[in-house]
Every structure is written in structure tokens, then in C-alpha cells.
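Lab notebook page, bench 4
Experiment: in silico fold of construct C2
Operator: M.H.
Input chain length: 432 residues
Purpose: comparison with the prior construct
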Amino acid sequence: MEEFIVEKMKENKIPGISYGVIDGEKVEMRGIGFRNVEKALPATERTLYGIASVTKSFTALAIMKLVEEGKLDLKAEVESILGIELKPFGEPVRIHHLLTHSSGIPSLGYAEAFIDGFFGSRESWLPVAKPQDLVPFIKDMEGWAVARPGKRFFYSNTGYVLLGLIIEKVSGVKYEDFVREKILEPLKMERTDFRPKDEDFATGYILQEGKLVPKPFPYGITSDGGLISCVEDLVKYLRMYITLEGPVSEEYLKLMEKEYIEVPWQMFGGEAYGYGLVIYPTFYGKRLVGHSGSLGSYTSFIGYIRDEELGVVVLENSSGYAPSLIGMYILAEKLGEDPYKIEGIRREEILKRFEGTYYGFKRTIKFVVKRRGDFLFLEGEWGSVPLVPEVVEEDYVKAFTLSGGRKMYAEFFLKDGKAEMLYERYRLVREP
């Protein structure tokens, strides 16, 4: 397990990872690498990270608390609470639609503009220091809709900002105070908050031209991705879902886990969104529930399999490698399954086998093949060509690119331990 984590950290230049595993009554927690590279400070299970969109599960839980207390109805119209016109195609957007990202309104891109502007990585700048700052920006958002409410999934940070505003309106207290009082304090998550509690706070990094560049935490709106937490606290949070015991009753916790709408990304089949949680109903024959998050400089994943009393937390201070894949790898091992059957990991490992320098007949031509994420790139003196894998098998990959509107294929084979490639008119062999 740790060999896999360290390998991915090395391959993707990840500064630090902290992880935790719940296995019945046992809990394993650790940090690997650095929370701060410049000062050579180590990451631990108590190191704080931005947990990004894992925050959405806390926002959904806060909504369920208000529903449980009889102060809010999941069928309530958003417009009736906030006064923001939200009736795409004449049908009202309800609380349920915001929770499930099914308002029918595609993402407004506010979070991307805000974070990129905060990092100074592009010219756009959207100054949203608090939820109310977003209201003028989203005033005519219903005109951006492409589907009726409840009919189509569009992941929406804006929807969870509105949920934060609804929590404030209905409860009469600030969103952050409500989450502290109703969730964090009862669960004894003493170091989790919307600002770091102490100096054991990981510096966030992004990779630019092969170098780790520190970036500030994008403080601002909180209900869609603003929580800061650590493995030690998130293990307590996961324990609540596994045992169904906590500040919200079993009935409402289970409502969060229902499969309300299918998500467009499918890895195992049947993945769907609940309330602030993603459900993977066919994870090695088990039901995995969780959520991931990314702020660019911080990434995260939580997941649990209640029937097996298993849970995992993975926190990174970069976006070098998906923590969801690390978390799923850990869970697969705990289940006694082969983690390389996870599609994302399987494809990655196979594509890596075909990286290298290839030569044609008597070294007349030369191509370099590199993997970047889910793609291969064919590089030569004339430039770089992206290759999109169509078939990925143990000893064979078929990928295509486009040239002049035509599909051109590259086929990769492993023969007697040697890699070969057929590309357009050429046969090439990789040299050791």
C-alpha cells in the first residue's frame, strides 16, 4: 500500500500525503513527505489540508440537520427562500436539485475563475470574499439552463454556495457557525475549521514547468469547498457514516446515500450522486460511498464501505495524482482484491509500459512516446502528437490521433519483453 503511494508521489512530484484507514475497530493514520518543502516540515496525520469539495458533504449534512429539526423541506423552492429567480423552463429549482447537482443549469465556472484569479494563473478575476458577493454574478443564471430540474447532472459549485446561503437564512446564523455547532463540535473534530487552527497547515503547491510552486489557500466562499481538516478528524467524520451514529439521525444519513441521479463519469458502472456524496454501487461487489475534492493546490478523498466497516481518507497538498485512486487502491487491498483492476490504475500501468524511445529501420527515424495522464504523446523533431487510447489491453494498446480530419492509428505491442509500435507507414522498436 505505502509502496504504491510513494511510487505515485515520486512519479507525480507530490510534496506530501496524509492518509487514514478505518478497518473495523482499528485505525491506521500516517503522513508521508512534506507539508512544507521549503522548510522541510514533515506531513503527519494531524497536518491540516484544504479538503475542497469534500466540504459539500458537510453542507449536505447541515441541510439534513435543518430538515430533521423541521425547519426546512427538501422540496422547498430555492426562489421562495432566497428570492433569486430560479425557474428554468418554467419549473422551480428545489433544495433537492441543488443537493444533487440536478438543477439543469451547467456550471457557471465561478470557482474556476475565482481560484485561477487567486493564483494569478490567468487574467480573469472574480472577487468573491463571501457568498453574498456571488449573488450579482448569478442573477440571470436560470437563462444558462439546458435541462429541466431533475433531468440532468451538472456538477455545480454555485449550487452549494446557494445551499450555504439557505442554511444561513433558515437557521439565522452564519453557515460556518452552524457547521461548527451542529457538526464539528458534536463529532469532536477539534482542529477542523474554515481557517487553520495552528501552524501544522500544509502549504499547497501546483506544478509549473516541472517545479513545485507554493500557492496561498483561496479563502472566500466556504460552503462548496472551504473547510480545512486533517486525517485525524476526518476519521471521526467517516466513523459517523459507518456506524450511523452522530449529530444527524440514521434516517437522514441514509437519505444522503440514496442514488438520486447518475453521474456522467463512470468507472465501475452505476455511479450516482446522493446528497453531497457519490455512490459507487459496484466497487468489487460492494457499495462504496464517498467524495473527492480539488482546489488545484489541495486534493482530497473520503470513502467508506459500511458493510465491511472500512473507510479511507487521503489528503494531498498538490494535484499530482488523484487521491480517489489512492483511496480505492487501499480499500481494494483491504478487501483482498486486486487494486490493478480499478480502471484508472489499470490503464495507467499499461500505458506506462509503452513509454520510451522508438527507432525505425536501422535507426532512420526516431519517436519518443510519453504518457501524460490518460493520454500518450508521440514526440519528434516536428513536434508533439496526442494519442487517444481506444483499446488498452495487457500487451496491446491501440490509440488514435487526427491529421487533416483523418483518424490515424498507433498500435503498440509487447513481444518477448520488447515494445514495438506501428504508426502510419512505420514500424518502430523501443530500445532499452
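Observations: The radius of gyration is 23 Å. The chain has a mean pLDDT of 94.
Next step: discuss at group meeting.
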